[in-house]
Amino acid sequence: MDSRVRHIAKSITWRVIASATTFALTLTFFGKAEIAMASWLAVAETSVKMVIYYFHERVWFKVSTKLNTKMRHVAKAFTWRVIASATTFGLALLLFSGHDNAMEKATYIALIESVLKMIFYYGHEEAWYRINLGLDNREKNNAAL
Predict the structure, then answer these.
(1) Residue 129 near residue 68 (C-beta atoms within 8 A)
(2) Per-residue pLDDT of the chain (145 residues; tens, 9 = 90+)
(3) Of the candidates 64, 90, 144, 80, the residue with the CA atom closest to the CA atom of residue 117
(4) Which end of the chain is more exposed for a tag (fewer CB within 10 A), N or C?
(5) What is the C-alpha to C-alpha distance for residues 128 and 12, in angstroms, rounded to an integer?
(6) Cα 110 from Cα 6, distance rounded (Å)
């Protein structure tokens, strides 16, 4: 099976987790009055970040590193978090531009999601490491050992 299928599946599962987190954070900090904004932010994140995440996965798939599995997951989590938080900040700033304290709201969402999603992303990577979908070569290499 092609590794691209794996990266698409990982992109979808991660986007569900991540967009739900952003939606929940927006509602938690800004109340039900912002439900429309929370919804738009989740939809915008899903659309934009799914594409960005796919390319992030492709780059890491092609990068050969001497990092052990745990450190590789930490490095991937960090690089993704920087890209994703900057994207969330930009999208939130754009969506909240007509509101009072738009910069403050966008900053809170981006900062808090950074911490939460770094933890969630690490867990997501750990789970996907145990799944061989799209990694026929890993199965063969492990069998040969």
Answers:
(1) no
(2) 567 788 888 888 988 898 888 888 888 877 777 788 888 888 888 889 878 988 998 888 888 777 787 888 888 888 988 998 899 899 988 888 887 788 888 888 889 988 998 899 889 988 988 887 767 665 454 454 4
(3) 80
(4) C
(5) 12
(6) 28
- Alpha-carbon span 19 to 21, nearest angstrom: 5
Amino acid 87 reads T
The pTM assigned to this predicted structure is 0.68
Q: Are 126 and 73 in contact (CB under 8 A)?
A: yes
Q: Is 2 helix (H, G, I), strand (E, B) or coil?
A: coil
Eight-class DSSP state of 99: S
- By C-alpha distance, which of 138, 119, 117 is closest to 129? 138
